[in-house]
Design goal:
The chain has 12 helices and 15 strands. By secondary structure, the chain is α+β, with helices and mostly antiparallel strands.
């Protein structure tokens, strides 16, 4: 049985505690034998020891119920640690649980040695092989091919080319807008100088159904000195722009054609202008030849001369007989109309000549050489074609002369907006082919004497078919 402590320790030092103290049971007898293995005895308070032992027992019981570890979850062991190992659970059963209070210290090493280390998670051979292959693949990653920088260079080259094309497109667009603005300003400035004469009302005897691809403007040449003087319609040329065939068709109507003038009976074609001006003349042509006429432009002698001079004159082949007639017309009427000396600008003979405005006007009015009025209209179309050719190569000097001398003498029924839209078509029409016809055509008329004089009896249906085929063709 335990002996009572005499109040002194092994060194015979009296105990100073105020309460009773005892030695732990089962330890003092073997103290000398286990002195080297066990820690030195400690003085504890009986009441505190009993209370602490009771709390540990409650704690351990609770811990056994709540904390169970499997062998694979066992935390690493530290051999030199003084902390007790946690409970071990294997296959759902508790085993090898050690407690200082329930088991003697000498069994601790045996229990701890019996605990197997944490086993690694088993893996199948296929998983091991896949891991080995993945490591080999990771080690044997191929180097970056040398072609990749070339691809990058190609992409960079393509992107650079796109940026260059984009810049060029912007530059071209800006230049186009500038040119378009300059062209529009020039056109508007010329349009404002044109003498506008609104139509008093037209009947339009010809329908434009199915013929919208053709825009027709009747160019009327009068023998008046200025725009205020009506005069006579010396020439009538229908200028048609066909967007289907990309052609400019100039159709000359013979002034002596015997036609029916609406509300005025039968007469020569040029009498329609004398009866009712440009509107009645357009209606008469539509009524007799079934050709749609959209608008007109009237040019007198003075403006015709100015147009030829503005483009720098024309080069044309002239026979000796034609040169003689040019001089006669200059002396008899043209020099007088223009207010010049009667003998000015006479020709010395025929050949390849450069004609000025007055000489070109006299050439267009020749009637006594060749087949009278038929060759006369042919000369007029030839002169107009040469003027168009000169206008295609527009020069700044032309603008000044057209604006000051030509445009103010030109009359039309088009308003400013219509003229502007027409001016936008001019650059495209400059590449059109030019074709010339005359009405009545060869073999579709005969001469006759009637109450108004010598006229041309016209086969109306035959000429309508010719106009429909030549002017309104669709390619």
């Amino acid at each position: 049985m335990p002996h009572r402590y005499n109040g002194r320790d092994e060194n015979n030092i009296p105990n100073t505690d105020n309460e009773e103290t005892i030695l732990i049971s089962g330890v003092t007898d073997e103290y000398e034998q286990e002195k080297r293995e066990l820690p030195p005895l400690k003085r504890i308070n009986r009441r505190a020891y009993q209370q602490n032992t009771h709390q540990k027992q409650e704690y351990n019981s609770t811990r056994k119920e709540k904390t169970v570890y499997s062998q694979s979850q066992l935390p690493p062991q530290f051999p030199h640690s003084s902390a007790p190992p946690p409970p071990i659970h294997h296959n759902g059963n508790e085993e090898n649980y050690y407690d200082y209070n329930d088991q003697p210290p000498e069994n601790y090493l045996e229990i701890r040695n019996s605990i197997s280390p944490v086993a690694p998670i088993p893996t199948s051979p296929s998983q091991t092989q896949s891991k080995t292959k993945s490591r080999k693949k990771a080690k044997s990653i191929p180097e970056i091919p040398t072609e990749q920088p070339k691809l990058k260079n190609k992409r960079h080259h393509k992107s650079g080319l796109k940026s260059i094309i984009g810049r060029l497109f912007k530059i071209v667009l800006v230049l186009f807008l500038i040119m378009f603005g300059v062209y529009s300003c020039t056109s508007v400035s010329l349009i404002k100088k044109v003498n506008q004469v609104p139509s008093e009302g037209r009947n339009h005897y010809s329908s434009n159904v199915g013929r919208g691809h053709v825009r027709s403007i009747l160019v009327i040449g009068t023998d008046g000195r200025n725009a205020e003087e009506r005069g006579r319609s010396d020439s009538m040329i229908l200028v048609s722009l066909n967007s289907k065939t990309n052609e400019i068709i100039m159709t000359s109507f013979m002034r002596d054609s015997y036609v029916e003038i609406p509300d005025n009976g039968w007469d020569k074609l040029n009498a329609a202008y004398a009866y009712g001006g440009p509107d009645l003349l357009m209606d008469t042509i539509e009524y007799n030849f079934d050709v749609r006429i959209d608008d007109y432009v009237s040019v007198d002698f003075a403006s015709f001369v100015s147009v030829v001079d503005a483009v720098g004159g024309i080069d044309i082949e002239v026979s000796d007989a034609e040169a003689e007639q040019i001089n006669i017309i200059l002396i008899s009427e043209v020099n007088y109309l223009m207010g010049d000396d009667i003998n000015s600008d006479l020709l010395s003979g025929g050949g390849k000549l450069h004609l000025n405005g007055k000489q070109a006007l006299s050439y267009s009015r020749i009637r006594n050489v060749g087949n009278n009025d038929f060759e006369r209209t042919e000369r007029q179309r030839r002169v107009m074609s040469l003027i168009f050719a000169k206008l295609k190569s527009f020069k700044p000097s032309m603008f000044k002369n057209l604006a000051s001398d030509v445009i103010p003498d030109v009359s039309t029924n088009m308003d400013e907006f219509e003229m502007y839209l027409l001016s936008l078509r001019v650059p495209f029409a400059a590449r059109y082919k030019t074709k010339q016809i005359q009405i009545p055509a060869e073999g579709t008329y005969y001469g006759a004497d009637v109450d108004v004089g010598n006229v041309l009896q016209v086969d109306r249906n035959a000429n309508i078919d010719i106009i429909d085929k030549e002017v309104f063709a669709k390619g």
